[in-house]
């Protein structure tokens, strides 16, 4: 699938004044895995909304394998809905970039070429709509982060959001994923073109069904029969994605460029582990992903829940407890004996909420997670994981806590994660820099000024603001548990909160 190109005599780090590109890739060292296919023969079949580091380390890498195996109709048109940064970095490189797979004691480099072009939606929404409407586009994939789905506290579409209001008034010039998807599907329908399949790759519960519901809600607000068309005719398979992708640093860029002998403005760092579970529902066709390790299934739900509650949930826990304890990276936080013991207890609580009869091997999964979190080469920043807690915690932590309580068991470890998020938010501007991590509700959180409320008042106010456990019979009990943890964090730090759980250690 990938071949290694022979090194060109004289190639060295002195070549870093030149960029990685179609022309310079032939000069890469033999240690770098390069493309084994003719990119000129590749045609686009996928439009991806939200081209960030995760997409380039995950879906784009799988598609690259398919292209190398001769499936040339699945090139990717990348779309940034906000920033031009990725386009500006990759355009001079013909869309090429380096994927650096790092373990604690080794690193391998591979050049990925599946992204054929990059569009920036605010600059040229017409070009994005044209790509989405193109008859050759059979799949639209998304990694736009949880907050970009613009859900209200109850889980439905936030119809009052300014960008939603704009897209409804200006369907020809959309800003949101909803606006682009609805308008392009309307144009395809009018032109007699088969709908594309919409494949959500974000960490949302039942992500395909969730996006389907949100887009139908949006289309209904357009005042046409488009909503029924989307509801009945467009496929929204769910998927579960899993790979740790830390932010690329300037040191990473310098190191990778030195190894390549040419400059790569935006390489991607990742771990050896990679998983993708996809519901097999693609009426317009798809690549043969299963040939390269993708698990195609009828029901993604159990895999998704395991990942959200065991990986994502513990990731958030490590992030907030690590920030409160002064740890900048996941591996350093996880190496702390008390935090490590807490994560084991968190997993024990969350595991009880997963289905027992679908073949999930939670013991093996958590053992792999422990190995992944201990990877010292990734330097995955706790502040990066801490972003957008109000959007992430409902499916990562709160859902598990509610299910555990409904089964008659206390979610003590789970609710400490919620309290740690509140405490970490309160710490910004004091022990942590003001914008050390961010959240879509930061303005509303600042208006609450929870630091001047009692722990009980603060927890109740945050639950009201975020919609955590809204409508659940367990809500008041969860607020009380979070408040008790928050009081301990305020008075005695993480160590006091751990002591209450029977965890002893040197964590501050």
Short descriptors:
508 residues; alpha/beta; Rossmann fold; N-(1-d-carboxylethyl)-l-norvaline Dehydrogenase, domain 2; 5-stranded mixed β-sheet; 5-stranded parallel β-sheet; 13 strands; 11% strand; globular
How would you concisely characterize the structure shown here?
The chain has 508 residues and is an alpha/beta fold. Helices cover 45% and strands 11% of the residues. It folds into two domains: 12-281, NAD(P)-binding Rossmann-like Domain (Rossmann fold, 3-Layer(aba) Sandwich), CATH 3.40.50.720; 301-500, N-(1-d-carboxylethyl)-l-norvaline Dehydrogenase, domain 2 (Orthogonal Bundle), CATH 1.10.1040.10.
Which architecture of the largest domain would the CATH scheme give at its second level? 3-Layer(aba) Sandwich
- What summary fits the major beta sheet? 5 strands, mixed
Number of strands: 13
Mean pLDDT: 93
Major sheet strand order? 1-2-6-5-11
Task: Summarize the structure in words.
This protein has 508 residues and is of the alpha/beta class. The chain has two domains: 12-281, Rossmann fold (3-Layer(aba) Sandwich); 301-500, N-(1-d-carboxylethyl)-l-norvaline Dehydrogenase, domain 2 (Orthogonal Bundle), CATH 1.10.1040. 45% of the residues lie in helices and 11% in strands. The protein is built from 19 helices and 13 strands. The protein has helices at 53-57, 59-68, 85-90, 125-133, 162-169, 177-191, 207-221, 226-233, 250-260, 301-325, 330-335, 337-351, 362-373, 382-386, 389-406, 412-427, 442-448, 455-466, 475-500; strands at 3-4, 32-34, 44-49, 75-80, 97-102, 107-112, 115-120, 139-142, 197-200, 239-242, 268-270, 275-279, 295-297. It has a five-stranded mixed beta sheet with strand order 1-2-6-5-11, sandwiched between helices. A hairpin with a 4-residue loop joins strand 5 (97-102) and strand 6. Helix 18 crosses helix 19. The protein starts with a strand and ends in an 8-residue tail after the last helix. The model is unreliable at 1-16 (pLDDT under 50).
């Amino acid at each position: 699938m990938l071949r290694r190109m022979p090194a060109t005599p004289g190639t060295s780090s002195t070549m870093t004044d030149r960029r990685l590109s179609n022309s310079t890739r032939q000069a890469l060292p033999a240690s770098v895995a390069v493309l084994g296919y003719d990119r000129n023969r590749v045609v686009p079949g996928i439009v991806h909304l939200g081209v960030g580091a995760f997409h380039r380390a995950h879906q784009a890498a799988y598609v690259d394998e398919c292209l190398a195996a001769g499936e040339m109709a699945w090139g990717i048109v990348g779309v940034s809905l906000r920033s031009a940064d990725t386009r500006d970095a990759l355009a001079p490189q013909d869309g090429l970039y380096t994927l650096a797979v790092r373990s604690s004691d080794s690193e391998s480099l591979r050049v990925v070429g599946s992204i054929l072009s990059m569009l920036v939606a605010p600059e040229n929404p017409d070009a994005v709509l044209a790509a989405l409407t193109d008859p050759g586009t059979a799949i639209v994939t998304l990694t736009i982060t949880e907050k970009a789905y613009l859900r209200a506290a109850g889980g439905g579409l936030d119809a009052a959001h300014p960008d939603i209001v704009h897209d409804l008034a200006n369907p020809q010039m959309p800003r949101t994923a909803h606006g682009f998807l609805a308008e392009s599907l309307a144009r395809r329908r009018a032109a007699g073109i088969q709908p594309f399949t919409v494949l959500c790759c974000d960490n949302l519960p039942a992500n395909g069904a969730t996006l389907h519901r949100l887009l139908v809600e949006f289309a209904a607000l357009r005042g046409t029969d488009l909503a029924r068309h989307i509801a009945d005719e467009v496929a929204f398979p769910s998927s579960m994605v899993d790979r740790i992708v830390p932010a690329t640093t300037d040191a990473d860029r310098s190191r990778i460029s030195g190894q390549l002998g040419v400059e790569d403005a935006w390489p991607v760092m990742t771990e050896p582990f990679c998983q993708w579970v996809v519901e097999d529902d693609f009426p317009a066709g798809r690549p043969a992903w299963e040939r390269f390790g993708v698990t195609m299934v009828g029901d993604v739900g159990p895999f998704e829940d395991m990942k959200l509650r065991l990986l994502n949930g513990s990731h958030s826990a490590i992030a907030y407890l690590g920030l409160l304890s002064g740890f900048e990276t996941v591996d350093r936080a996880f190496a702390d004996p008390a935090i490590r013991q807490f994560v084991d207890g968190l997993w024990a609580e969350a595991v009880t909420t997963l289905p027992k009869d679908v073949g999930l091997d939670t013991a093996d999964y958590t053992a792999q997670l422990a190995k992944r979190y201990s990877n010292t080469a990734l330097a995955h920043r706790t502040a990066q994981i801490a972003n957008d807690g109000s959007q992430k915690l409902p499916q990562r932590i709160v859902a598990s806590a509610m299910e555990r309580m409904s089964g008659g068991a206390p979610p003590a470890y789970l609710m400490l994660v919620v309290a740690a998020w509140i405490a970490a938010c309160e710490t910004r501007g004091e022990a942590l820099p003001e914008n050390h991590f961010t959240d879509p509700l930061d303005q509303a959180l600042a208006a609450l000024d929870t630091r001047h409320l009692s722990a009980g008042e603060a927890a109740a106010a945050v639950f009201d603001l975020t919609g955590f456990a809204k409508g659940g019979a367990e809500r008041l009990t969860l607020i009380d548990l979070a408040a008790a943890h928050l009081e301990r964090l305020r008075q005695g730090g993480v160590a006091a909160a751990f002591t209450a759980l029977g965890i002893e250690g040197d964590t501050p």
